[in-house]
Amino acid sequence: MAALVKLQKYLADAGIASRRAAEKMIDEGRVKVNGVFVKKLGARVDPSRDRVEVDNNPVQPPLNRHYYLLNKPKGYITTVSDPFNRPTVMDLFAGRSKRRLFPVGRLDRDTEGVLLVTDDGELAYRLTHPRYKVEKKYHVLVRGYPTAKDLDRLCGGVDLQDGGITAPAKARIISVNKEKDLSLLELTLYEGRKRQVKRMCTALGYGVVSLKRVSFAFLSAKGLKPGAFRPLERKEITRLYSLVGMNNVTSNNR
Ligand code: URA
Question: Is residue 253's pLDDT more than 90?
């Protein structure tokens, strides 16, 4: 039998409300368990069996996996632990490390932007597998002014020597700063090789000044300051699952 959890915790874990707000909902008589109103705060439910409703709307059981969207700041290494004790992205999740979270793919230490962090191994594997061609969008500031021919090369494939030719991509110039001799490019990739953006740009003779991942699949870091993270919403998780051919989001009762 699955472990019983307090009703207010169940509602909070399911993303309905904070624990305190969930307690208020229970107190107000808005919550039903198996068709019966429950107003007792200590009531416990079995997530694998009990049917919970708020205002007569069924509550989807909480997930037993965890999914976060982090706006990675510069200066953090994308790894679970670092032998040299440098700051890692997992340090930003202090207090949640018991959950065996890990980053999905990697961003360089000096790269900032969207990074998923989860404990869902299968989803992470698929999201980073080139077979699924998950879209990653980068804003890269380079020295100099890439030409139309350079953009064609970035899109059509750049020979990375040891890594072969890159897969088809998209590239456009966002802005040019003639005074500072800089161009801001948007590069959209569908694979994820090590240091790929930097290697593509330097292969064409453009030094990279800074790099930011502005989106991963359909997820952006909008509203998140560097270093901040948020849990993914259930509909975002479901969408990621279907993007990589997984149909069932795992919850406590599946
Ligand atoms: N490409 C790079 O060169 N670095 C990153 O961090 C991500 C993509």
Answer: no
Q: At what angle do helices 234-243 and 121-128 cross, to 10 degrees?
A: 50
Distance CA 137, CA 188 (A): 4
**Domains identified in the chain, total number:** 3
Q: Taking 90 as the threshold, does the pLDDT of residue 78 lie above it?
A: yes
Please work out whether the CB of residue 197 comes within 6 Å of at least one atom of ligand 1.
Answer: yes
Active-site residue, from 13, 46, 82, 108: 108
Domain interval for residue 120: 67-130+219-243
Q: Is 195 in the pocket of ligand 1 (CB under 6 A)?
A: yes
What is the CA(247)–ligand 1 centre distance, in A? 30
| pLDDT tens-digit series, residues 54-65 | 999 999 887 788
Question: For 83-109, how does the pLDDT look when each residue is reduced to its tens digit (9 = 90+)?
Answer: 999 999 999 998 765 568 999 999 999
Same domain for 96 and 157, yes or no, is no
Note if 108 is an active site residue: yes
Give the whole-angstrom CA distance, residue 204 versus residue 146.
Answer: 9
Judge whether 74 lies within some domain. yes
CA–CA dist 45, 53 (Å, integer) = 12
**Residue 252 falls inside a structural domain:** no
